[in-house]
Amino acid sequence: MMPRLANALGSAFGVCMPGRTLASVTSAAAFRVFLLMLLFLWMRAGLVASSAPGNEKFELEGQFIDSPEISRSGDFPLVFLHGSTLPFSSHTRAGADGRFRFKGLLAGSYTLTVHVAGIGEFRRTVQIGPAVADVRRKIHLDLWLSSEERSPARQTVSATQLAIAEAARRDFEKAQKFLSRYDAEGARTHLLRAVSKAPHYAEAWNALGVIAYQTRDYTSAERYFREALKHEPESYAPLVNLGGVLIALGKLEESLSINARAVQLQPEDALAHSQLGQSCYYTGQLYRAETALREAKRLDPLHFSHPQLVLAEVYRARNDIAAMIVELEEFLRLHPDSTAAPAVRRTLQRLRLQTLTPGNEAR
Predict the structure, then answer these.
(1) Greater confidence, 151 or 188?
(2) Separation between Cα atoms, residue 170 and residue 230, nearest integer Å
């Protein structure tokens, strides 16, 4: 969440640590589990960055490799890059050679969205940081687009959205320019101007919600996403984003229904499955949570919502230390720059020691 001006960050700190969960933390082992989940929630909220902090800038160079979906289109695809944990948005068009690039990127997790005319959209999580960059701070990405991960192209635009005033659209475009410089406040100012000129501008309301989410103003984010849905009820982006912020606010039952609907609408979106898995986990539906989270991993193993960490908690709840270790090891392998890595390594060390002592339970 900018998880496409259409993607939500995952759950946030304070998410719902319902009273019953806090009350159950009565032993040293349970308290360690609580700390692990707290770390996870901090990280998802952006309180712990996805990658090592700093102002070091990177460049992403991508190329499409033997993609039949692009050949079918006969057009050069548009490539969008949205910050998953940072307020950022930019786009470019791939060249005739299938290459594209984004410069001046801060370390973090991003959602890459490829729009192929007449075919649909493809989404992929991209990690930017020193662990995946070369000595020139460049990240090289080869993309092969599979029809399995394609989201259908939007078929229609409502008459309400087509009637948006040109002045409001100009403010929206100005907001995107501020986001390309990581300037959330400048973007927010222009988005507020856009909705003041066109109160039915659903895309602008959604963008406001994304910025509020990323800056941990969850109450405002919920209000903005609901406003977007009021004007464009069939829009997927504010729906899945609302599903994420409801988890952050601890509104678990509603998050369950919203995220289940998002999965039905776009079963190829890893975010929807990951959030459904979280909703199921927090409401005690462990097997359903496992199914959703494993599907999220299958669709996008690098996904910024870190389904491995929630799966580790699912397996912890089942006292399955071996499975828990597998998920945490995968997280470290995929997110070596994460500032959560040292704590996860310490947890892994304790779990491995436990496997050497028969009879121990997950701690």
Answers:
(1) 188
(2) 22
